[in-house]
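Q: How would the structure tokens look for this protein?
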Amino acid sequence: MRAAVRGDQQAYQHFLVSVTPHLRAMARRRCDQFGASASEVEDVVQDVLLAIHLKRGTWDPARPIGPWLTVIVRNKLIDSLRRRGRRVEIPIEDVAATLAAEVDADVTGSLDVERMLEHLKEPQRDIVRSISLMGAGVKETAARLHMSEGAVRVALHRALKALATIYRSDVNENG
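A: Here is the predicted structure in token form.
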């Protein structure tokens, strides 16, 4: 790595090839330690290699490289866990038809849904109506609201979570 920092591309290539198995082992140990799935390992290794490339100028050649690499592996694993969260993710497309079918069951249910939707802020309310009640797709809704598809999915997930909380509190109060 010292030669690589001085601009030796061949030494840099050799360093990356030789350090990758060690990074993989560190990532695997960290994934086990934090309870992350084994599938995270390769993603973390790729993130670490990219971070090494982008931040190689921050490494102090007078210091050992091991601790520097260990910190990068730990930080990239934490970033990965934060991004993915520790929950099961189900694509909204898999449940959108079910949600729309349940809501259309009867008029009384529709009135209850409208009352519950009043608790949501825009654009969450509009997203729930569009996707869950009207049957529109995420892509179509995102285009109409000038949002990214990812932002629409996140807003829908949060809105449905809020509606579930509202529903549970209504059931506990009235049931």
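The domain at 92-174 is CATH 1.10.10.10 (Arc Repressor Mutant, subunit A).

Residues 86 and 147 are 26 Å apart (CA to CA).

Upvote if useful.
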